Amino acid sequence: MAPTPRMAIAPTHPARLRALASVHGLGKAALGEFRYLELRCGGGDNLLPLAQRLPLGRFTGVDDEPRLALARAAATRCELANVTFSGEHELEPGAFDFVVAHGSYSWLARDEQAKLLATIARSLAPTGVALVSYNTLPGWSIRGALRQTMLRAVGHRDSDGRLLPDGLYAARARLTKVARHVHSSHPYRALLALELELARGRADAALAEDMLAEHNEPLAFGDFMARTAEHELDLVCETLPATPDGALELTVVPELMAEGLGRIEAEECLDVLCYRQLRATLLCKSGLPIAATRDYRHLCESGRFAARLGIQTESPRLEPGTAIAFVTAGGVVIEVERPLLKAALMVLGERYPHGLTGAELHREATERLRLARVSDDETAATPASAAELLEPLVALVRRHHVELLDWTPTVHRELSSTPRLFELARLELSRGPVATNARHEPEALEALEVALAQLLDGTRDRQALVHALADRIDAGALVVDGLPAGTERRAALAPRVLGGVVRLRDLGLLV
Q1: Is the N or the C terminus of the chain less surrounded, counting Cβ atoms within 10 Å?
Q2: Could you read off the pLDDT of 257-267 as tens digits, one per residue?
Q3: Is the pTM above the cut of 0.85?
Q4: In what order do the strands lie in the sheet with 34-39?
């Protein structure tokens, strides 16, 4: 049985899929009305947030009936009328603009893998695109070796193929025994130590559903593409960066292709060079004209830039000759000296999750420079200056540090006197401290934010929220560090409540 998603999966957002298809020559980037299919959708953890935020889309989820019952119940609770859940046999051929199978392919037996690809090929609209993720070699080789070691310790499973508790304990004990002997600086043992740490840190359910699943087949990229070709599916592109900084594939693949390798062969060599463990590959029907290189010109005219960026530099300055270090969502540090680009990235970080057109971003960046009394030929608010800004921004888009989509989420900026949380976010937070933000990304919340969010039902004003949280702290149901005791607690809680509500608003979690 394949692992079921328990949170939103950012690359599956249709605006991201549409943008990638468009820069490879497959139609326009704008979403408009569309039909979206998720295979092996589980309880709808990925599908329901999309249905909530994209009312023009019609969403369909397919899975086994017990899982679909949970998904239907959640959709009914959240009053989502644009999503349905059905069996695979009910799917309309050629009807879907997007088909997604994330976190399932590698965990299926070979005949089920073939059925999955056949369903994708049958369901795709003529110019639709499909996303399939899978464990990849060579990066999965050490993890696979640990899997085999643990499986030998597991022993028998129950009649439904599930691990027995003793088997799980035995598998964990085997990992511990191996870990005791990793004491070398040898490169292989360094990789092994990292994989051991990751495996040992996983929750029991995650370990059982992933590494100890009955099936888990990693495969080389070329082998996967050979299988997709049997179902008349072609490569569009890879949706995930090969390395955190997103730079390696920009040079390696074109250089290898210039040396005579085909595109698939070059991509497979890239996987060897970066020891890739996971791919999420975008596919289309065979015969469509696919550009191997990405052309962002049309997106620069109609799309919106967005980026989650922090600033690592103390007392950042916009003047020429001083660098600002920006930290991306993936932890990569980007150092920038050019005043206009520094100002633009500062604006993007502050406006996230909202996206800005190139013209809007240029206007706000130049205004920021004017207020800071930084001005030169490059930073003047002219068409030449705007064009000059696009080049480094697109370079950051190519490296996955900045997004450029023909879509931006709607985030309500006004704060109600009695704020209310989306019901879907309430449901997500009842399962754990993670909710889906406005850009379809899983967002981890602190304990105080989770408790606050669950109180936002539209009946409490800020004072009532402070009192309710203080009561939970007094009752021992909530622990918040740094708060005074006694009567001063409520006064100290008030600014934290306001900050928490503002953050939930900025994440797009408030109605």
Answers
A1: C
A2: 999 999 999 99
A3: yes
A4: 83-86, 57-62, 34-39, 96-101, 124-135, 278-285, 233-238
